[in-house]
């Protein structure tokens, strides 16, 4: 049977981005060796590398390559040259926000789970982590990230937070549907005691809940949610929240999994879907072959599900678990016998090809 071809646009980006993305591609090569699929890659520029090469954080040809792809894999963007220059006119992160907007990626899905091999070394007591498995539905193309912003003179600045009903409804439907396929619980995280936008979120979610009678809905203020994520993470099933709260709560939740280097994400919406780790460009590790590639590899597993290759996705997740269980991991999750980024990628690829036993 002829192999089906998936056209993947790859945006390695900055810092550790190229290193972790090439490990994800190594894993995809193992998948292609085992299943009736081949991956055809187009590489694009985004972030600081794009600014250096073209002056823009998201060149037009990158947008076009993403729009025509079956899926997009992104490493990370960001560079200390820009982080430490508050006056910079063009910033790498603008490229990321712009590609999310250009592809209509209004829903960012960030699964939070534990890994058996990492339970004992987490800063949270292992008994609190038993059975933790939830997913954050983060709104990705609205709110304070995309509202009007500016400066007034030298010493005043503003960022407006705006949400429309339609922006809330479309992600809320996806979150409710996810809850019906999971444990039928949805928690809206907001700041409705202070913010008008949060009160709109609460009103819309309350109204929509009538369409999903099996789903139990509860509401948490974000400050309390930040504590509950650490205190009692097993209470969550689907967490629905706006753009900035989702950004913050998900980095916090990485403590549950063991490292920021373990958390994948999928961004979906009206155009091509995009798969990226939730972490950034970790510039301190760039070029050192020490960053954890598992978040990107697990993002690729989400991509395989999206491409209707669920068995391959399962293989990738199992290979990650097997690598962890045999102590084969980078320094963030294995201080005693750390392996390099590329060695971890090799191991996971070999486990998929079944060239090594777990
Ligand atoms: N999606 C993205 O591209 C994205 C996300 C967050 C931050 N950023 C950008 O990245 C740059 C650095 O930001 P930051 O330091 O706040 O966040 P970061 O996520 O890059 O790193 C924070 C810390 O998390 C750990 N970490 C992150 N990724 C890891 C990995 N793969 N393996 C092991 N440990 C890992 C490290 O301890 C690191 O010091 C900034 O320019 C920022 O704007 C980009
Ligand atoms: C780099 C930044 C724009 C981005 C965000 O805040 O969305 C990042 O933190 C993320 O979580 O993907
Ligand atoms: Mg973030």
From TrEMBL:
Cofactor: Mn(2+); Mg(2+)
Main location per the UniProt record: cytoplasm
InterPro entries: IsoCit/isopropylmalate_DH_CS, IsoPropMal-DH-like_dom, Isopropylmalate_DH
Reaction(s) catalysed (UniProt annotation): (2R,3S)-3-isopropylmalate + NAD(+) = 4-methyl-2-oxopentanoate + CO2 + NADH
Binding residue positions for Mg(2+): 223, 247, 251
Binding site for substrate: 100, 110, 138, 223
Keywords, ordered alphabetically: Amino-acid biosynthesis, Branched-chain amino acid biosynthesis, Cytoplasm, Leucine biosynthesis, Magnesium, Manganese, Metal-binding, NAD, Oxidoreductase
Pathway: Amino-acid biosynthesis; L-leucine biosynthesis; L-leucine from 3-methyl-2-oxobutanoate: step 3/4
Textual note on the cofactor: Binds 1 Mg(2+) or Mn(2+) ion per subunit.
EC number from the UniProt entry: 1.1.1.85
Free-text function comment from the UniProt entry: Catalyzes the oxidation of 3-carboxy-2-hydroxy-4-methylpentanoate (3-isopropylmalate) to 3-carboxy-4-methyl-2-oxopentanoate. The product decarboxylates to 4-methyl-2 oxopentanoate.
Assembly and interaction partners: Homodimer.
HAMAP family (UniProt xref): LeuB_type1
Family per record: Belongs to the isocitrate and isopropylmalate dehydrogenases family. LeuB type 1 subfamily.
PANTHER family tied to this protein: 3-ISOPROPYLMALATE DEHYDROGENASE
Protein name in the entry: 3-isopropylmalate dehydrogenase
Organism this protein belongs to: Persicobacter psychrovividus
């Amino acid at each position: 049977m002829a192999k089906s071809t998936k056209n993947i646009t790859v945006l390695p980006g900055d810092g550790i981005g190229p290193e972790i993305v090439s490990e994800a591609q190594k894993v995809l090569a193992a998948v292609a060796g085992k299943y009736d699929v081949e991956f055809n890659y187009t590489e694009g520029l985004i972030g600081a590398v794009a600014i250096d090469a073209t002056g823009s954080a998201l060149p037009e040809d990158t947008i076009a390559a993403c729009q025509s792809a079956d899926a997009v894999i992104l490493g990370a963007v960001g560079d200390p040259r820009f982080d430490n220059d508050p006056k910079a006119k063009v910033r790498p992160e603008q490229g990321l926000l712009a590609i999310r907007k250009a592809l209509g990626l209004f829903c960012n899905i960030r699964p939070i789970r534990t890994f058996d091999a990492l339970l004992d070394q987490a800063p949270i007591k292992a008994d609190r982590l038993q059975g933790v498995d939830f997913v954050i539905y983060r709104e990705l193309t609205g709110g304070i990230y995309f509202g009007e912003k500016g400066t007034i003179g030298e010493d005043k600045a503003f960022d407006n937070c705006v949400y429309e009903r339609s922006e809330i409804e479309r992600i809320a439907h996806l979150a409710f549907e996810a809850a019906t396929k999971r444990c039928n619980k949805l928690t809206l995280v907001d700041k409705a005691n202070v913010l008008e936008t949060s009160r709109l979120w609460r009103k819309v979610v309350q109204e929509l809940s009538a369409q999903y009678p099996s789903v139990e809905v509860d509401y948490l203020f974000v400050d309390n949610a930040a504590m509950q994520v650490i205190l009692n993470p097993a209470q969550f099933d689907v967490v629905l929240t706006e753009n900035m709260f989702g950004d913050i709560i998900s980095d916090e939740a990485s403590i549950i999994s063991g490292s920021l280097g373990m958390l994948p994400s999928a961004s979906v919406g009206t155009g091509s879907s995009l798969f990226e780790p939730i972490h950034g460009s970790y510039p301190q590790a760039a070029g050192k072959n020490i960053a954890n590639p598992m978040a990107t590899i697990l993002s690729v597993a989400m991509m395989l599900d999206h491409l209707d290759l669920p068995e391959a996705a399962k293989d990738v997740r199992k290979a990650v678990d097997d690598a962890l269980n045999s102590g084969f991991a980078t320094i963030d999750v294995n201080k005693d016998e750390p392996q390099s980024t590329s060695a971890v990628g090799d191991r996971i690829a070999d486990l998929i090809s079944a060239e090594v036993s777990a």
